[in-house]
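Handout, section 4.2: multi-component inputs.
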Amino acid sequence: MILNGLFEKEFKAINIGLVSFKEALHDAEYKCIQVDWSPPAGGDTDVLAALNALSGL
Amino acid sequence: MMAVKGIIKTGEYYDSVSLMLVARALTEMEGVEDATVVMGTAENKQILAASDMLLDMFKDATDTDLLIVGKAGDKAKVDEVIVKAEELLIESKQKKSVSGEHMPKSIEGALDQDPDSTVLIISVAGRYAGDVAMEGLKKGLHVMLFSDNISIEKEKELKEYGRDKGLLVMGPDCGTAIINGAPLCFANVVKRGNIGIVAASGTGLQEVSCIIGNQGAGISQAIGTGGRDVKSDIGGIMFIEGIKALEADETTDVIVLVSKPPAPDVLQKVANVVKDLKKPVVAILIGGDPEVMNAAGATVAKDLEQAGLIAVALSRGESSEGVPASLEARKEEIIKQAAEEAAKMKEGQKYLRGLFSGGTLCDETQLMFKEDIGPVYSPAPIDPAFKLDDIWKSKENTVVDLGEDEFTVGRPHPMIDFLLRKKRIVEEGKDPETAVILLDVVLGYGSNMEPGQELGPAIKEAKEIAAAAGRHLSVVASITGTYKDPQNREKVQKELEEAGAIVMPTNAAASLLTVEIIKILGGK
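Output:
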């Protein structure tokens, strides 16, 4: 199966960031869930690196 | 005395485009000197300091603090700015969530809501985007990374992981893609069909897919990879995965490859894959050596338009041999049109000023000039000897891509915000040496909704300034867009023509007209 069947499955997106990208997909009648994202750990990059190390990312 | 006031809203996060739109609305208020709404990142604080708006209270702010600052003639006015800013921010939050729609806080939450989601689109700041992408891949999602400023090491890690798991990683800095008909980020509305595209160039993908769409043909899949994919560090990982996927895809009959010049080792790798394909391949590798792809059995096009037209012919089971001949016939018409334009010019008018929003279109024009006339000045020239000393000031034949990082600091991309381009059009109109102003107008989702109304007055003004000095200024524009795009190609064309622009169907045609005009005027 190519690309885990991406081309055969219904297109459904998750959008993190610019809301206009979700709106464009909705306008074109595709499904898209907007994530209400904010920078992790208050944007502190040192804490972020430590969290990533802990979560194995 | 000027009054300045600022407030901090802790823990409120907004994306940069929403904030720019709010700031723009505030600066347009009557009596307001300046206003900014930004997240408190180190870069933003530097920008505030440069415009004398870094208040003491902002100095310890962090990435998750929202900073609002206004500058106006009196205290009542700045208070008004702050109130208005808060109103606009609430509006923008409400826009994010359509009536009662639940917004999860994480990818995990989104997958709980719909476990069948397939693609994760990411456009957050580069320093977070890489980790968000890896999180998505680990959850089995294909990734579209619109964000840039991601390290090459991270890009490689993501792409190797994606390849091993059978997942696409489009980007970083991937502006557009079409998957199963869905337009992602800056994409045009093109019907579904049997032509598949793999592109390491955002506007290249848009231009080719629009040409295909406007010929009545359609796209099966258009996979973007981000420009760095075809450099040696990444080695074409996703470009090659994309080709393999299209070869295996039953709905794709013709494969089009679009890229700026790949690194020679990557080009060879791609050619090795192409030579074993059963489906016909059309390649447009702008500025790349055509021989390697020719030897691999691909049909090599000389520009984006030719690539699109050849693909359309092949997709209909026709021979592509007629395409160069029909373009040659059109060239004769264009040469006549160039002679008519050049005849109206005043002595001393001899140079091109190309003001682009699409990087690949800018490269395509540079290349056509180089072949026919000679190199042109640019902030990113093909010939390093032609690097523009001052990016804000043109010299002889000049082309600039206003989407380059040096032009976009602190402002939206020129496909969204036309302010810089409008100013520059008027500036170029004042220069007695300017013969032609060449513009690309890119339509589609994500782009400015009224490009004709935005550019029209600036085009008119530039032409009037030139006319007042006894000059005829040619403004040549191309439109990258389809008749189904939300902006309506026909309407945009009409508005540009009413402003006095000559509108050509593609960037290749617009560049050819410009080349022929400049040739007659001797501007080299």
